[in-house]
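User: For a reading group we're discussing how well predicted structures match intuition. Take Right handed beta helix domain-containing protein. Before you show the prediction, I'll give you the sequence so everyone sees exactly what went in.
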Amino acid sequence: MRRAVDSPRSLATVAGRKWLGLLPVLPALALLAGCGSQPIGSSRMSPDDPIAGSVRPAGQAGRPTTKELDPLERVAAAERAAAEGAAAQRAAAEEAARQAAELAEAERARAAATTRSVPESATNGRADSNRRAPAAPSPLAIARPEAGRAAAPGVAPQRMPVTIRVGPAGQVRSIAEAARLAKDGDTVEVQAGEYRGDVAVWTQKKLTIKAVGGRAVLIADGRSAEGKGIWVVRGGQLIVEGFDFVGARVPDNNGAGIRLDRGSLEVRDSRFIENENGILTGNDKVSTLILDRCEFTRNGHPSGQSHGLYVGMIERLEIRGSYLSQARGGHLLKSRARINEIFYNRLTDEEGGQASYELEFPSGGEARVVGNLIEQAPTTQNSTIVSYGAEGYKWETNRLTLVHNTIINRRQEGGNFLRVFRAGAAVFSANNLFVGRGGIAILGDIREGGNAAPPIRDFMAPGSYDFRPRKDAAFIGGAVRTDVPEGWPPVKFDRMYRHPRESVAVPSSKVMTPGAFQP
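Assistant: Thanks. Here is the predicted 3D structure of Right handed beta helix domain-containing protein, as structure tokens, for the group to look at:
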């Protein structure tokens, strides 16, 4: 086993104490010893050297073949080794600094190149992923700033987020490749256009994915990620903005525009069209889903097991300023989440729609439904519009708040505007308008006030879904205060849905009117 080399200081101290009296006779001892000692730095080794056959580091002493070296020579050898080691360290540091400077310069050049505006393709901005395009830069060209940054010994370098551009003129040409390259904190920008069969799995802990220059249309074209959908999200906090997800289908009839296995997903200004499920989540009880200004149209499957928006046993669902319509089967919105906030949306099955329920909370939970326009089509598959607790209560708290909604039943045979299937839940219903034939069926406690059932002629243009009240409508000014029971989360009706896919502030007025729209 190789012995550690003593420091020059310690060797000098030993030599000073032990050998001081022998200095006058050292030359004679050297003559007696002859030249049997192996020179410092020699590569010749004794046959019994335990590291024979290996290469010694530069400046390390070879093993003596006869006698131990003179202690003073050992001191000198150690000093030479220390000097050589220091020189080697200085050279290594200079080389590392040179390489860091080169990498930093390369990163500055890349940043200057990638911040230029992306030119539109010859197809007026349509990015057809099947069309041959000029060779894109290698993915390795997406330099990361941490590569050129010197880090303290033992400390991992901190990376800076980068932007990955996708499209014919981008750094990569497929969304799938961007999903493989992106790191936590990055932004993926997808050039407007059509992307056929370009499915992807996202596993990053924090990521923003957005379309630039217009809408990016993702057409499944018979393909799916992991047999689940166009995109599979299995990560942390993701923001998605400006995409259309079209035509997701898989063998089990649960093909989704986006499949959220776990994580926190926020989707803005995106559309889900003709998928078996617009969005389908798993049952991860800490996951959250936020939808802002989104559209779900002609989703579902005739089997009735797929839905426009299907949310599993997750922590929270929020949907605001969005439009859900024309189900091909199943429900417009089905959620098993613990907390549901359904604020100022339009859920209308419309002509030819075949939705079962428009809005269902089969497992109970906390459901706050405020400021929505909800309509059941004549061709519905079910007589109930809003359903709560049909499959039993799976959460500790089960409360339904229904405030300032306009709910229309166009089914000729009538039906239930609201049905609470089981006792054990509490309902607060205030300032809603129930239009058409039907009633309310509730098992459980209910507190209500300010609700009305006006004729359809009391609205401006119901045929074109303008459900603002006419000036002579009898219910104008009939709203009551929406003071929820003690211990309930407060609700505030401060915005109204505006088609398509947005909301506006409720006009200031001393007198409020029931329903989702103020005069």
